Amino acid sequence: MINKMRIKSVAKIVDSAEFTTHLTGGQLIDLREAAEFRRAHILGARNLPFSQFDQSISAIRKDKPILFYETAKPIFSIRAALKLKKAGYTNIFILKTGFKEWSGKVKKGA
User: Rounded CA gap, 73 and 81, in Å?
Assistant: First the structure.
């Protein structure tokens, strides 16, 4: 119960439809590893693998919405949101179903 309340205080976990409404003007961040990102990712996303996230926080702007996603259930996204909240970031959204269930535009790699 406490964890759910803590998560709600740092980020909003949303479905694909709501996630899409925040794409324009937002920072779309794929937390999967680089190899997965290269295979396919949501169009417009940039890759900041969670394994290197601590070193990449400074590359994220505080003045724009932040949209996280990963493969499926948001585990690393929640951890990343907690780190950002601690660093003073707000306006964080997490894709509830992850990339596996994404039906929007995708860029496929080689």
Answer: 14
β-pair partners for 27: 66
**Cut 0.90: pTM above it:** yes
Specify if 25 maps to a domain: yes
Total domain count for the chain? Answer: 1
Residues of the domain holding 77: 2-105
Query: DSSP string spanning 34-54?
Result: HHHHHHEEETT-EE--GGGHH
Alpha carbon distance 103, 22 (integer Å): 15
Residue 110 resides in a domain: no
Place of tokens 């949209």: 67
Q: Give the sign of the dihedral formed by CA 14, CA 71, CA 108, CA 52.
A: positive
pLDDT one-digit tens code per residue, 42-73: 999 999 999 999 999 999 999 999 999 999 99
Chain-centroid distance of CA 80 in Å reads 8
CATH number at residue 11: 3.40.250.10
